[in-house]
Amino acid sequence: MPKLTSQGSIVNVVKKPPKHCKEIKRIIGRGPNIKYAMNNIRNFAADLKGDTLYIQRGEKLVGVNTFVGGNTHSVYGIVYHCKMKN
User: Fold this and answer.
1) 4-13, 58-67, 77-86: which has the minimum mean pLDDT?
2) Does domain 6-81 match CATH 3.40.50.1110?
3) Interior angle at CA 51, CA 45 and CA 37, nearest 5
4) For residues 59 and 34, what is the distance between their CA atoms, to the nearest angstrom?
5) Whole-prediction pTM
6) Does residue 86 register a pLDDT over 50?
7) Nearest CA to 27 among 19, 5, 11, 62?
């Protein structure tokens, strides 16, 4: 399981699209369970220099993991840059 990086851990996860922020990119996090997928998407958001992540939706796909025939969880979100520098 990918560990949440120090940068990924400071990405703010929100339930509504933030106002007055710059959209960076729409991304997907995937993994064999929801925690893995969330760590994956938060780390990816941090790699893109985002500070806020709006989670649009998540889904569990049964029997589609091509490596072991198990489940795959996907989390869809949008990365934003919201913090303003003084």
Assistant:
1) 58-67
2) no
3) 35
4) 9
5) 0.84
6) no
7) 11
Domain boundaries, the chain: 6-81
| ∠ Cα 31 24 48 (to 5°) | 55
Rg, C-alpha atoms of the chain? 14
Q: What is the DSSP letter of 72?
A: E
Q: Which amino acid is at 12?
A: N
Q: What is the pLDDT of residues 26-76, one digit of tens each?
A: 999 998 888 999 999 999 999 999 999 999 988 777 655 555 556 788 999
CB contact set of 6 (below 8 Å; sequence gap of 6+) = none
Place of tokens 């339930």: 15
Q: CA-CA distances (angstroms) from residue 63 to 8, 58, 60, 69, 73?
A: 29, 16, 10, 5, 11
CA distance 72 to 70: 7
